């Protein structure tokens, strides 16, 4: 049960003062709150005391209760400490910026601005009016600096304001770039039709409407004719609003966008009704994958948006994932995307699958006439009308109700958008669905509180697992979708084609892997520690392992039959058939043959296909291989009881990727368990059991069908076409509707009986021939040969990669020769070897074990001629490691030859390589972390920080490999090269994305050099943009100093925050002036120095 701790005001103030004393104060509070002794606690009534203490004894004793209460108290105190700490942060911000409010307004609202300023000043704020600006860059920069130094900004929005280009730019800049930095209070001064760009911008924050009321008539007599002037004169804004609402509006606004549903059906009920109508309309023409919605502005304000919508609609229309597109029925984003979607599907002779959802009407329907078509109802009222394409659906009595209904929809694509779009997007997220925001279009889509990647957590889970090839493809698909999401989320790409491609990539992945992303995480690897697991069951990870497992048996017998709810009516009849079949198959194959089935669990009292499989295992000693999707495969690895999968003891399990289809009868997405898909291609478990690889190896030897439904029919049809011996024994199924059986006797035996009748399949005998009489398939040898060649090639490539990492030159030469013979092309093999070396060099990092080793320390000391590592910076060290040489200098250098000068670089095959490529193999492996740091750091501090980091986080230094520019970059091309070095910005970005983990190494917390170097500032900023996790670390001495300073309490905390807030990217430097200019140019393109400074702070 949630608990809140509260104190009287005086006690609370005393608590905060004690915390602000620092470490001693915090320890005193925690010590006091930890003094819990329930055994000595008292009650007013002794009877109550005895009763409660007896209850405590029954619930674990006094010790357990004491610990629980201590934990609760300490948790509360910790929360207060954290809250107090953040209060210090805000206080520091206020001290730096002051309680300063900037007001942006049009000259026509000067009087209103003065009244607001007066009220804010009375509340303790300092008030500045917006500087007089024009649209030139110098004036805009001055405005930006003023806002950056403000605590909050007030925008008084009126007709005149929207006609002032400079003021509109002010609003746009603040709303798009500064929402996290300042409190924003937009005030709609008067009632007017806001331009779309204003509506889009206001969708990202809450706003206040202050519409000054007007006199109902003038002060003259009733027959006055001079009303015009007085009627248009606004009354003063109420004192209540000025004194009450206004001063408290910073930090939270007033949301005027909500309203309640009208009486009648709920939005969820109407949504379900709408979905059923759509599903009924889709008919049986093709399999259905899922719904995708489009939401956004009704007019385009961003010049990119219309082209993006068209491209998305067209790409979705030709997607292999079979979709229906649903829009809100208005012009703009919805119409443009859906028309393109409809046209593309028509062009390929496919159903439109486009649905526009409009309300029947709206109390203010006259304001929607430019957004959707309207018509007159029988009673003369105005109603919304149908569109001229797709299908128009009418749900809800108002636009707000329609938004509530659409809010229950699945995935939506968000482009631009105003307040209404923002509401719909939030409702979609609250319903547990995904919003794909196209950030570059602005408006609601630009609001970063809307839309978060659904792929991140699953990818993190999968990245830590060893997976088979099939799961590897799934992981790669999710990674590609995550990259597409990052592109959209960054909002920096302005190429409509690339943006549309990313949207479709994300949408298709969401549909294709819906179940997986909804939480059906796979269980990977070998089972451990479950007493109910089948004994000695092997878990096969790849299809190659499946083939190898099958090859250990004389034959493989595929088995299918009735599955729940179509159970066997008489299990004894089935047992008799099974026993007879075993006799026949044992005569043909010997006793060592394998049973292959789809992994149905055994359930007591349920007579389905698992029963004959159990009989084959327990009565006849046959091993069983279960082929099951990974979703249900979890149940095999964690069974509910020991009987469920006991028949897999001594057998095996193979899990394949879970895929879904839309079942029209069930009106929902279901797992593809097997049989044919819409293209009459085997899917699910059937695609594994009868895959080309399995059939090329001569398996399955035959297929036994003991009754069966649609999946059994499809498998029988497949075997019939591919001459795999069939044995069909009809088995009566349970049937609750006897009248149905009387109409058609075949119904008593299921769908397989109907198919057998239609195709002349005999019962209780082999067709078209017995397994032992199977004719030779002449191309099996050729297929097996090709499969062996492909397998050999793959093994050689893996062998080459491992040899390359280990620098085994002789081994590399041997593999190259083998590849040359295999491919019949020496140059191709030689180039492949080079490509592998280049790729590994670019992906490698230096081990922390090497950086902490005596070997590295000795290299530094010998080159520098000094023993004290605390006095040697990397900036000095570089001069001793690399400098330009020629052939004459080289001869005289001797031991002081630049490191790596005598080696060939694996990246460009020129003389001189990176320091990394000179290291032994154990210290040069794929990167695990990107290190952000500065060469002004001493070697001693560098090693101290890394040593403390790996110890604190429990990392193995030999398993952690860092991308460290000093070691990884080829300094011969950068420092001493002649303009032929790597383009640092193209090296940095891709490496940071690929590694996806940054360690930021600060030299110290008090005025760190880290915050004065342009590259480290930019790296921090980019890590935030790319959502790369960052860990900050310090050398041991600096870390101890930081803790001591924090322990001083309030003053220490403020000192630390003040120091770390001193970021000025405009003044930051780089070792090379060309680098400095390049990075500063990139910063200007990504929002300017102010944005970068704020982000790093």
Overview of the molecule:
With about 1100 residues, this protein is of the alpha/beta class. About 45% of the residues lie in helices and about 10% in strands.
Find the structural class using helix and strand composition. Answer: alpha/beta
What profile does the largest beta sheet have? 8 strands, mixed
Shape: globular
Mean pLDDT: 78
User: Low-confidence segments, ≥5 residues, pLDDT <50?
Assistant: 212-236, 251-264, 519-529, 773-781, 884-895, 978-982
Strand content: 5-15%
Global Rg: 36 Å
Count of runs of 4 or more consecutive helical residues? 45
| First and last CA, distance | 38 Å
Instruction: Give the % helix.
Output: 40-55%
Q: Please state how the strands of the largest beta sheet are arranged side by side.
A: 14-18-17-16-15-21-22-23
Beta strands, count: 29
Key phrases:
alpha/beta, six-stranded parallel β-sheet, 29 strands
């Amino acid at each position: 049960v949630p608990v809140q701790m509260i104190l009287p005001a005086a006690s609370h103030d005393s608590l905060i003062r004690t915390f602000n004393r620092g470490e001693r104060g915090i320890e005193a509070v925690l010590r006091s709150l930890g003094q819990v002794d329930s055994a000595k606690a008292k009650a007013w009534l002794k009877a109550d005391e005895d009763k409660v203490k007896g209850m405590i004894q029954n619930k674990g004793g006094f010790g357990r209760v004491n610990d629980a209460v201590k934990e609760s108290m300490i948790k509360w105190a910790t929360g207060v400490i954290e809250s107090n700490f953040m209060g210090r942060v805000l206080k520091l911000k206020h001290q730096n910026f002051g309680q300063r409010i900037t007001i942006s307004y049009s000259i026509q609202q000067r009087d209103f601005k003065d009244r607001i300023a007066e009220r804010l000043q009375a509340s303790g704020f300092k008030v500045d009016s917006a500087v007089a600006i024009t649209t030139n860059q110098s004036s805009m920069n001055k405005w930006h600096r003023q806002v950056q130094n403000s605590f909050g900004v007030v925008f008084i929005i009126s007709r005149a304001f929207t006609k002032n280009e400079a003021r509109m730019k002010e609003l746009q800049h603040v709303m798009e770039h500064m929402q996290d930095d300042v409190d924003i209070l937009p005030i709609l001064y008067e009632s007017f039709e806001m331009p779309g760009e204003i509506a889009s911008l206001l969708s990202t924050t809450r706003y206040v409407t202050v519409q000054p009321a007007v006199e109902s008539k003038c002060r003259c007599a009733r027959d006055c004719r001079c009303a015009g002037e007085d009627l248009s004169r606004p009354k003063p804004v109420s004192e209540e609003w000025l004194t009450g609402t206004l001063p408290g509006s910073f930090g939270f606004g007033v949301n005027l966008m909500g309203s309640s549903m009208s009486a009648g059906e709920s939005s969820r009920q109407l949504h379900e009704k709408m979905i059923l109508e759509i599903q009924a309309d889709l008919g049986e023409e093709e399999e259905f994958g899922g719904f995708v919605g489009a939401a956004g502005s009704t007019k385009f304000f961003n010049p990119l948006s219309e082209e993006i919508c068209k491209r998305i609609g067209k790409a979705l229309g030709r997607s292999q994932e079979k979709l229906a597109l649903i829009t809100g029925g208005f012009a703009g984003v919805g119409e443009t995307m859906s028309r393109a979607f409809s046209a593309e599907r028509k062009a390929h002779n496919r159903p439109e699958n486009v649905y526009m959802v409009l309300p029947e009407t709206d109390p203010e329907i006259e304001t929607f006439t430019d957004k959707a078509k309207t018509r007159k109802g029988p009673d003369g009222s105005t109603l919304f009308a149908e569109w001229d394409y797709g299908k128009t659906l009418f749900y809800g009595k108002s636009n707000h109700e329609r938004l509530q209904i659409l809010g229950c929809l699945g995935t939506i694509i968000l482009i631009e958008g105003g307040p209404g779009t923002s509401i719909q997007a939030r409702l979609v997220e609250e319903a547990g669905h995904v919003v794909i925001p196209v950030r570059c279009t602005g408006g609601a889509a630009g609001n970063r509180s809307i839309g978060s990647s659904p792929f991140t957590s699953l990818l993190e889970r999968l990245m830590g697992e060893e997976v088979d090839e099939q799961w590897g493809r799934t992981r790669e698909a999710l990674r590609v979708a995550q990259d597409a999401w990052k592109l959209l989320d960054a909002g920096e790409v302005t190429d409509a084609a690339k943006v549309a491609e990313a949207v479709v990539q994300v949408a298709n992945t969401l549909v294709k892997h819906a179940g997986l992303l909804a939480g059906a995480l796979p269980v990977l690897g070998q089972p451990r520690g479950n007493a109910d697991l089948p004994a000695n069951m092997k878990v096969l990870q790849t299809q190659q392992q499946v083939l190898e497992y099958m090859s250990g048996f004389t034959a493989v017998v595929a088995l299918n039959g009735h599955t729940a709810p179509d159970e066997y009516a008489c299990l004894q009849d089935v047992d008799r058939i099974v026993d007879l079949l075993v006799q026949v198959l044992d005569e043909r194959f010997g006793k060592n043959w394998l049973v292959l089935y789809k992994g149905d669990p055994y359930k007591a009292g349920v007579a389905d296909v698992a029963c004959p499989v159990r009989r084959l295992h327990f009565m006849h000693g046959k091993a069983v291989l279960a082929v099951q999707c990974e979703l249900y495969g979890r149940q095999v690895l964690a069974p509910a009881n020991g009987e469920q999968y006991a028949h897999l003891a001594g057998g095996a399990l193979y899990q394949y990727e879970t895929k879904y289809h839309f079942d029209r009868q069930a009106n929902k997405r279901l797992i593809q368990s097997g049989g044919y898909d819409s293209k009459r291609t085997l899917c699910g478990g059937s695609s594994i059991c009868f895959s080309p690889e399995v059939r090329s190896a001569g398996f399955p030897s035959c297929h036994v069908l003991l009754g069966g439904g649609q999946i059994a029919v499809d498998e029988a049809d497949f075997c019939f076409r591919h001459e795999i011996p069939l044995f069909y024994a009809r088995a009566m199924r349970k049937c609750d509707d006897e009248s149905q059986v009387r109409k058609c006797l075949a119904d008593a035996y299921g769908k397989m009986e109907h198919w057998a009748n239609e195709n002349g399949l005999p019962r209780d005998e082999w067709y078209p021939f017995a397994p032992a009489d199977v004719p030779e398939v002449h191309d099996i040898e050729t297929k097996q040969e090709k499969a062996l060649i492909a397998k050999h090639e793959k093994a050689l490539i893996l062998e080459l990669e491992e040899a390359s990492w280990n620098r085994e030159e002789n081994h590399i030469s041997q593999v190259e020769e083998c590849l040359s013979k295999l491919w019949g092309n020496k140059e191709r093999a030689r180039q492949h070897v080079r490509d592998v070396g280049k790729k590994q060099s670019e992906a490698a990092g230096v081990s922390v074990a090497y950086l902490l080793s005596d070997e590295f320390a000795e290299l530094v000391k010998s080159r520098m001629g000094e023993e004290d590592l605390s006095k040697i910076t990397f900036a000095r060290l570089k001069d001793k490691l690399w400098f330009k040489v020629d052939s004459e200098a080289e001869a005289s250098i001797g031991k002081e030859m630049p490191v790596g000068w005598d080696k060939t670089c694996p990246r460009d095959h020129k003389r001189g390589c990176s320091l990394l490529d000179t290291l032994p193999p154990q210290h040069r492996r794929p990167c695990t972390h990107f290190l952000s740091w500065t060469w002004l750091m001493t070697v001693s501090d560098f090693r101290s920080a890394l040593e403390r980091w790996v110890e604190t986080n429990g990392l193995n230094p030999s398993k952690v490999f860092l991308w460290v520019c000093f070691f990884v970059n080829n300094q011969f091309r950068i420092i001493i090269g002649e303009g032929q070095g790597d383009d640092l910005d193209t090296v940095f970005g891709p490496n940071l994305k690929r590694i996806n983990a940054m360690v930021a190494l600060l030299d110290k917390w008090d005025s760190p050099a880290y915050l004065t170097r342009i590259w480290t500032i930019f790296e921090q900023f980019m890590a935030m943009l790319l959502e790369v996790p960052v860990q900050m670390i310090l050398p041991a001495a600096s870390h101890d100093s930081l803790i001591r300073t924090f322990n001083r309490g309030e003053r220490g905390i403020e000192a630390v925050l003040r120091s770390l807030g001193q970021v000025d990217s405009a003044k930051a430097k780089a070792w090379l002036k060309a680098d400095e200019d390049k990075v500063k140019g990139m910063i200007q393109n990504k929002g300017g120095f102010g944005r970068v400074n704020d982000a790093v702070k």
